[in-house]
């Protein structure tokens, strides 16, 4: 009897192990058939800054290789004309104007994304992906009053990233340190970091009071703490060993991105490579200084292009290029003088960072949000140009389709076929945003409702899109938005306004973000 029982127990255990084995194998097989996903996201790169998008003065051979070997979208949009809101929408698939805090954040802002909210990396983790971010975060950290000398949380690790090597906000904002999975990298515990956006720390020099200490001069804003001879936004003290070296930032992020690939190449991975160029302060490595002939802004773009080339080379030498989809875009349109004297205006020559469009960063006109937008997948995506209307907010649902997840959001339209070049049918319409004001694009038309405020920001010298009257443009005939048709195309105006209001609601009128100084 004992023997028979033992025999049955043995048979049962064999059956069970073979079953669980099968299940495990299935997940493994499914996981290994999934492609790696890389989002390369630039900061303030304009539509016209890229060779494949018409730049002749500035050469970007490595971005061009992706654009010419993949799909070059001509109607691809960031959701916003500034960084934080665009990044929020990119990761969450939610329009930034739905979150009233999705505005340019100081370095001390709390985490903007709700830890219960779905994000691209969270969605991908449900399918077995390893997820990482390297580069600019600018979506807030902690829950208010971060102590930079302790573990910093919640942050990227709490909204879906297994690994996060970031700068907290922007290169021109304190704290000017790297944060490695919630810990300030290279922090000497005896030299605490203090950060404030309200007041200076006693005895610390500032850009405003100590011009003799500056290697880069401020033009507007940017006159608080001085780090590496560069005056920043916000005050900071201590953490000397942890301070980044601006000229090494690009190499550092590239190296971390490459290390990430090395560590995780055996499993499907998602890497959000959020580059800092060509945002201010523009500090290309000495290897790139003078390379563009356009001053530091151009040199920083040449440097970024080189980094992209090196990163793609890494995927290639690892044999990963055929199994990796690369999406490249920018968080908002271009700006020349964004607060420092760095020759961006003086050395511009014939270069047109805004391409054929009007406006730039901060603007509701096209150049604010119409950005380079490229999908590349060697052997899977046929090279093409697509005029389909697509937005970065669509990536969440579209990537979910790619990995056979049914996760989606109301704002994020699943258009995997468009991103893979199998369809030309993009979105019907899209809400555009710039410093809390919104506009409406549908088909070839764009409607900009009236907004108070200056028509032009005289510091950055960019037309913001504000007017006392409705503006209506036909982008097919008038890319540069020169001819306001609101008075003559009354029916179209009304139709657009009704649709805009239906999605956006009357609250679009509360454009409360501070006027940029
Ligand atoms: C503005 C800064 C600008 C830049 C921007 C954020 C001033 C006067 N201007 O407030 O230099 O940092 O914020 O750029 O401080 S973004 O690309 O991250 O949105
Ligand atoms: Ca930006």
Would you mind describing this structure in some detail?
It is a single chain. With 517 residues, the protein is α/β, with parallel strands linked by helices. The protein is 24% helix and 16% strand. The chain folds into two domains: 32-187 and 252-423, Alkaline Phosphatase, subunit A (3-Layer(aba) Sandwich); 431-511, Arylsulfatase, C-terminal domain (2-Layer Sandwich). It contains nine helices and 22 strands. The strands form six sheets. Strands 7-6-5-4-12-1-13-14-2-15 form a ten-stranded mixed beta sheet. It has a four-stranded antiparallel beta sheet with strand order 17-18-19-22, with helices on one face. Strands 3-16 form a two-stranded parallel sheet. The longest helix is centred in the first third of the chain and has 32 residues, at 2-33. The protein is globular, with a radius of gyration of 24 Å. The protein starts with a helix and ends in a 13-residue tail after the last helix.
CATH topology of the largest domain: Alkaline Phosphatase, subunit A
The strands making up the biggest β-sheet line up spatially as 7-6-5-4-12-1-13-14-2-15
Number of strand elements: 22
CATH architecture designation of the largest domain = 3-Layer(aba) Sandwich
Bound molecules: 2-acetamido-2-deoxy-6-O-sulfo-beta-D-galactopyranose, calcium ion
CATH class of the largest domain: Alpha Beta
Given as residue ranges, the uncertain stretches (5+ residues, pLDDT < 50) are 16-31
Count up the helices. Answer: 9
End-to-end Cα distance, whole Å, is: 89 Å
Level of helix content? 10-25%
- What's the story with the biggest beta sheet? 10 strands, mixed
Mean pLDDT: 94
Strand content: 15-25%
Output the structural class: alpha/beta
What number of structural domains do the residues give?
2
């Amino acid at each position: 009897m004992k023997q028979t029982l033992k025999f049955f127990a043995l048979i049962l255990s064999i059956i069970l192990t073979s079953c669980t084995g099968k299940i495990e194998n299935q997940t493994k097989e499914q996981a290994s058939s999934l492609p790696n996903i890389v989002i390369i996201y630039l900061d303030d790169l304009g539509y016209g800054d890229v060779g494949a998008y018409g730049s002749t003065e500035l050469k970007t051979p490595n971005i061009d290789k992706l654009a010419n070997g993949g799909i070059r979208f001509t109607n691809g949009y960031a959701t916003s004309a500034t960084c934080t809101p665009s990044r929020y929408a990119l990761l969450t698939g939610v329009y930034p104007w739905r979150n009233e805090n999705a505005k340019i954040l100081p370095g001390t802002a709390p985490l903007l994304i709700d830890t219960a909210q779905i994000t691209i990396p969270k969605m991908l983790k449900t399918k077995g992906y390893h997820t990482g971010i390297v580069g600019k975060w600018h979506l807030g950290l902690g829950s208010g009053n971060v102590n930079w000398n302790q573990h910093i949380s919640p942050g990227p690790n709490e909204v879906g990233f297994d690994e996060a090597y970031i700068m907290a906000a922007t290169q021109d904002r304190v704290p000017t340190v790297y944060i490695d999975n919630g810990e300030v990298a290279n922090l000497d515990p005896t030299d605490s970091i203090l950060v404030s956006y309200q007041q200076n720390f006693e005895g610390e020099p500032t850009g405003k009071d100590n011009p003799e200490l500056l290697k880069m001069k401020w033009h507007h804003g940017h006159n608080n703490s001085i780090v590496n001879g560069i005056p920043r936004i916000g005050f900071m003290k201590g953490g000397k060993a942890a301070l980044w070296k601006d000229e090494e930032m690009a190499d550092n992020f590239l190296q971390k991105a490459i290390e990430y690939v090395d560590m995780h190449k055996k499993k499907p991975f998602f890497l959000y490579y959020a580059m800092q160029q060509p945002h201010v302060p523009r500090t290309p490595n000495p290897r790139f200084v003078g390379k563009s002939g356009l001053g530091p802004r151009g040199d920083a773009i040449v440097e970024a292009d080189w980094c992209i080339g090196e990163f793609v080379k890494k995927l290639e030498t690892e044999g990963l290029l055929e199994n990796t989809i690369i999406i490249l875009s920018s968080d908002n349109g271009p700006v020349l003088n964004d607060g420092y004297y760095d020759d961006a205006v003086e050395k511009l020559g014939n270069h047109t960072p805004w391409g054929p469009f009007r406006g730039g960063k901060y603007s509701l006109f096209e150049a604010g949000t119409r950005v380079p937008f490229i999908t590349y997948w060697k052997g899977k995506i046929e090279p093409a140009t697509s005029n389909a209307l697509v937005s970065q907010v669509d990536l969440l649902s579209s990537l979910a389709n790619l990995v056979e997840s049914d996760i989606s959001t109301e704002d994020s339209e699943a258009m995997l076929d468009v991103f893979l070049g199998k369809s030309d049918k993009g979105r019907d319409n899209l809400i555009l945003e710039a410093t809390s004001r919104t506009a409406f694009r549908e088909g070839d038309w764009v409607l900009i409702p009236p907004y108070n405020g200056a028509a032009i920001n005289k510091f950055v010298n960019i037309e913001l899109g504000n007017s006392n009257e409705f503006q209506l443009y036909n982008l097919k005939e008038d890319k540069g938005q020169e001819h306001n048709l609101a008075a003559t195309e009354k029916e179209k105006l009304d139709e657009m306004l009704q649709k805009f209001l239906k999605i956006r609601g009357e609250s679009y009128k509360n454009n409360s973000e501070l006027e940029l100084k």
